[in-house]
Amino acid sequence: MTLYLGVALVAAAVVLFIVQPVVKGIHASLEREDDEMTETEARKRVALLALRDVEYDFLAGKLDEADYRSLKAELTAEALAALEADDAAKSVATGAEPTATVDLEAEIAAIRRGLRAGTSCPECAYTNAPGSRFCSACGAALGELAAS
Amino acid sequence: MTLLGEFALWISLPVAVWGMVLGYAGGRSQRGDLVLSAERSIYAVFGLHVLASAGIVSAFLNDRFDYWYIANYSNANLELFYKVTGLWAGQRGSLLFWALLLGFFSCVTVFTNRKKHREFMPYVAGVLQTILTFFIVVLLFADVNPFERLMVDGMPVTPADGAGLNPQLQNYWMTIHPPTLYLGFTSFTIPFAFAIAALLNGRLDARWIQLTRRWILTSWFFLSIGIVFGMRWAYEELGWGGYWFWDPVENASLLPWLTATAFLHSIQIQENRGMLKVWNMSLVLLTFLLTIFATFLTRSGLIESVHSFAQELKIAYIFLSFMGAVLAVCVLLIVHRLPQLRSENQIESFLSRESAFLFNNLLLLGAAFSVMWGTMFPLISEGITGQQISVGPPFFNKVNLPIGIILLALVGIGPVIAWRRATKRNLQKNFATPVVVGLVTGAVLFATGARHELALVTWSLSAFVLTIIFTEFWKGTKARARIEGEGYPLAFFHLVTRNRRRWGGYIVHVGFVVLCCGLAGAAYNTDNRFNVQPGDVVEVTSPFGHTYQLTYEGLSVSIGRGQRNLLWQAIATVSVAQDGAPKGILTTEKRQYTNRNTQPMTEVGIRSIFREDLYLILSALNDRPGALSNQPGAQGIDLQVLIKPLVGWIWIGTFLLAIGTIIALWPSIDRRRAGAGAVAPHEAALAGAD
């Protein structure tokens, strides 16, 4: 008897727990986060990270000057294209005029500033809004640096 | 408790089906209430499986021999520890344990994603519940229900005692090896679920990979150490001095490891270069199918024994149809999404990091295919010729040793060859010194008398790879120390902590290299067999040149009194001296258990030092009845003495591999430690590539 009571209790609890959202209309969000990276942003990030890699390889002495220059020129061109595409996508989204010129150095400088301020993610280099504690792109903790 | 557990298992079936249907429906109709219900059903299924597992454990503890599973895997005298771990001692319990672990990981996934990545979650919940439903169906309907009563001629019976646990499984490695592997198998379901969700919701950028990277690494971690735990168990317990025999069950666990390793490498190309999207989807699917296949194979006895095959036909059909269905659905989904899975870039040169990665993938898959072929060959040959023909270790070694050696070389080449295209200068700059170190190592070993080709190649390549990795660490540390003005230890610490994925990966590579060196040591194994009487001294020379003097001191026999199910135990004591210096005592024994009519078992004596293991086996008693009745003249034994060079390096390598994986997995804490100090502008560059 106790057994059947126990089974009935367990079953009732389970049914209540899983049916409640449907009956009471409790909704879970299905939206993708607003501050998440767009496709063009992701491409931009990949291009900038590739530049970062080449810089690292050169600093660590794995690439010589000539190889470094040729690879960097190529990657810079790609990064520029990615930045322009991202800007174009953003201006379509916001309805604003696309900026005529893209300053790659300024973009990189912005990422570096972000790193300094702690808003750039150490894991994926995504630039987060100031005050973020976790990266919007990958969820890594940004630590106290980003808190200010 | 046990009955409640049985009911809980039954209740979990409709709950899982409900969650599966609502997950897909919620994703399709974008209804949040359905999705929430599906997610809650995952928690519910896990809770019910906790009850079911508790039911089985309680049946073990209470000696409920009226249950088939308990009667076959336990008896009254079994130690408490093995009664608790009885949950995964046999096929039936293992399947429940699988569902329990998968339920746990599913709960973690649903919980950690309750506020983010919501666009994936409906289908993730749907896929997870599909897999859970499958396992529940198998448990309930494939004649493997752990709650089944013991029946004889259709009548329930309760034997006075159980058959007991197979003595070979009464070893602590055996209690942690299966759950570790299962953790690896089940956690791989999460990346699979996200991959399918990505195919269903159309977000086919590298997002699903980023979200599941930690899961993939976690799974790989458990697979790796699970496999090595199994090797360790075989080495200690099976008593023939080996750790790998290309046994179907071993192969089954190696297969998903090979494809998961390939996957871990190929996702980096997708992340860095936007290539190989279809390939990565296929690899995640393949690895998942192989984890299911391994689960099925390890516990079904499909290959070792044709006789059990007939009995297990039902479960075999269920598993095979499920795997076929999953495969078909995935292929359809990939084909459907093909236009969106196009590569963003092309490989520019044969000499580039991309092609090194690709080559690594092809080799790993080649190895997986050959292992699969060799494992299934007995079944294939039985199907065609009616006779089971097994392919032995020679086949596997012949195919996989060359593959392993090329992979080892790639471990060195990959990290330093340039992305896109390597120039001659790039190659010279990075490979000149390591190649010289490798060649010198080979020459020195040759000069000291090493002649085994494969071992020489392995050790030379290892020196080559280690030089490259240490140079990487050195260059990174030096660059950091110079630019940041930090001391070398601090610079090194920051180097690793700022990009744990990269540097942790290198440590994993070092572990792999050490492991390979250890495996190559097997080329110099020695094996001697002596018939000895008490007081006899035998000498064995190690490949390293020193000599062991082993004195057989005698046999001590004890007749068990029912404890630990032991019938009798005969322990041979051997004093060990190395070049005349005493090094203590080793024992090796034969024992016979009361149950299961097993042959006498062997317990080996191992003395491990950094360079080699001395491994003693009591192969046979000259006069067993005489020895058991303690006759003084009946103490002669056959003593087998093995010397196994570098075997300890396998365990050390695995340890390094585990440490490296943990470093790569560790969540970011270093940012906090950096305090208020500004991060220098070149920080990003110094952290290095992913």
Task: Tell me what the structure shows.
With 148 residues, chain A is an all-alpha fold. Chain A folds into two domains: 36-102; 103-148, no CATH class. In chain A, 59% of the residues lie in helices and 0% in strands. Chain A has four helices and no strands. Chain A is elongated. The N and C termini of chain A lie far apart (61 Å). By secondary structure, chain B is an alpha+beta fold. Among the domains of chain B are: 1-165, Four Helix Bundle (Hemerythrin (Met), subunit A) (Up-down Bundle), CATH 1.20.120; 524-649, no CATH class. Helices cover 62% and strands 12% of the residues of chain B. In chain B, β5 (547-559) and β6 form a beta hairpin. In chain B, 49% of the residues are buried. At the A-B interface, α1, α2, α3 and α4 of A face α1, α2, α10, α16 and α17 of B.
List the helices and strands and how they pair.
The complex is a heterodimer of chains A (148) and B (690).
Chain A: H1 2-24, H2 39-59, H3 65-94, H4 104-117
Helix pairs in contact in A: 2-3
Chain B: H1 2-29, H2 32-61, H3 68-73, H4 80-84, H5 91-112, H6 121-141, E1 151-152, E2 155-156, H7 172-187, H8 189-201, H9 207-237, H10 248-273, H11 277-300, H12 306-311, H13 313-336, H14 353-385, H15 393-416, H16 424-447, H17 453-484, H18 488-498, H19 500-520, E3 526-532, E4 537-541, E5 547-559, E6 566-578, E7 581-593, E8 601-603, E9 605-608, E10 612-621, H20 624-628, E11 637-645, H21 647-665, H22 670-673, H23 683-687
Antiparallel strand pairs in B: 1-2, 3-11, 4-5, 5-6, 6-7, 7-8, 9-10, 10-11
Report strand order across the widest sheet of chain B.
Answer: 4-5-6-7-8
Strand count of chain A: 0
Unreliable spans of chain B are 305-310, 669-690
Major sheet details of chain B: 5 strands, antiparallel
Order of helices and strands of chain A: HHHH
N/C terminus separation of chain B: 51 Å
The proportion of residues forming helix of chain B, as a percent range, comes to 55-70%
Mean pLDDT of chain A: 72
Count of domain modules of chain A? 2
Largest sheet: number of strands, sense, barrel closure of chain A: none
Total beta strand runs of chain B: 11
CATH architecture of the domain at 1-165 in chain B: Up-down Bundle
Return the CATH topology of the domain at 1-165 in chain B.
Four Helix Bundle (Hemerythrin (Met), subunit A)
Biggest interface between protein chains, with counts per chain?
A: A-B, 64 and 82 residues
Estimate percent helicity of chain A: 55-70%
Number of helices of chain B: 23
